[in-house]
Amino acid sequence: MQAHQIMKKQVIKVKETSSVRSVIEKFIEHGISGLPVVNDNNEIVGYISDGDVMRFIGKHKSYVIDMFAFVNVIEGDDVNFEERARKILDLNVLEIAKKKIIKVAWNDDIENVAAVLGEKQIKKLPVERNGVLVGIISRGDVIRDAFKTLL
Question: Is the pTM of this model over 0.90?
Answer without folding.
Answer: no
